[in-house]
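queue> holo job accepted (adenosine-5'-triphosphate)
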Amino acid sequence: MNAPLRHAEVETGSGIAVNGATVTYRNGLTAIRDASFAIPTGTIAALVGVNGSGKSTLFKAIMGFVRLARGDITVLGMPVAEALRKNLVAYVPQAEEVDWNFPVLVEDVVMMGRYGHMNFLRMAKKADHEAVEAALARVNMLDYRKRQIGELSGGQKKRVFLARALAQDGRVILLDEPFTGVDVKTEDQIIALLRELRDEGRVMLVSTHNLGSVPEFCDRTILVKGTVLAYGPTEETFTQANLEQAFGGVLRHFMLHHNTAEEGSGVRVFTDDERPLLFEGGKARRHSPGETTGEPR
Ligand SMILES: Nc1ncnc2c1ncn2[C@@H]1O[C@H](COP(=O)(O)OP(=O)(O)OP(=O)(O)O)[C@@H](O)[C@H]1O
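queue> job finished
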């Protein structure tokens, strides 16, 4: 019998359930040990941790790219291999994983999301073209459909890969650092889109270094450091104490170097996109636009 999940949740509509997962790479390094978390459908969850903490390894495990030495993962209640066969898992990669010099048009990238729906000849049908068009319209990139992918800005590239996930109609969407290299406006657009997708009952798992945005739009947070340190509703897990455990000195360094001011129980953390994160009584919230920052409250 499997060990019970930490913060045991019995959820109907299970989105992703990772139970005691351990991944050891060929060189003998165990990147993730005994990791457990569960995310229900209709959720945006943040996967938060420092570089090398194992976020990508968890993504790879959910996409079946790496084998589990122990434990198991189910996606929408089925084993990973079955969910992949049914084309249910979509992936939005980090910019660094993509060869931007490869000569391919925006609409061709989005069409790749349809491959799993086509037969082995990969002949696009009317429905496939319609899905590509709808996906590009949804991310406001229809006007760029004939552009070379390498000719786009960082935020536009992200939106094209989001459109690919939409064209695929993935019920579970894994997004690796979706806010790196995008401006605040694009970040807001992406967040708005993720909220719509959540309301459609999809599951989004978002790996991010941008702590500032997490309490704003992620319902759940999973803190990673070689294992899952904590997971659950963001208001319970995204606490100063848990973040310090996950980030160790890095969080303090981050605070020290970003004009943090401590007053009473509130610690202001000025994040890289200039929208500070504020810890009050150990809990985080983001400053609202217009709210004064740096002033005693
Ligand atoms: N193919 C591999 N073979 C051996 N070790 C690996 C491999 N891929 C990753 N690792 C190691 O596993 C650990 C976790 O790496 P992982 O890429 O999952 O971290 P991450 O949290 O995604 O980091 P980042 O934020 O930098 O993307 C690291 O120590 C890394 O060096």
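queue> The two ends are 52 Å apart (CA to CA).
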